[in-house]
């Protein structure tokens, strides 16, 4: 088997706003869509993101442990920009930090089981060779 995609859940009331953020702000392209989900890929990536509509009545209380993660030279500033983008569309957003090098964005009304993480590129620099 070969790794293809990961899936995360989004409140259906805010589904299109979340999809718009990935497309308009982070350069994702919509690959396909059905009534319950959309598959997205960021230019240059080879793993896809599936966003699924979920009308679960609860939000995972530990969703900070499940991230859609990005590398950034300015992770906190980039997430603050996205938080402002959501707030301008009527969705309160908050920024948290795992450390001084890695931060996360939560949009509690929209994200069911994940947050968006941004971290410095050196945190993903692994000294191994994959064959």
UniProtKB/TrEMBL annotation:
<feature type="region of interest" description="Disordered">
    <location>
        <begin position="51"/>
        <end position="70"/>
    </location>
</feature>
<protein>
    <recommendedName>
        <fullName>VOC family protein</fullName>
    </recommendedName>
</protein>
<feature type="compositionally biased region" description="Basic and acidic residues">
    <location>
        <begin position="55"/>
        <end position="66"/>
    </location>
</feature>
<dbReference type="InterPro" id="IPR029068">
    <property type="entry name" value="Glyas_Bleomycin-R_OHBP_Dase"/>
</dbReference>
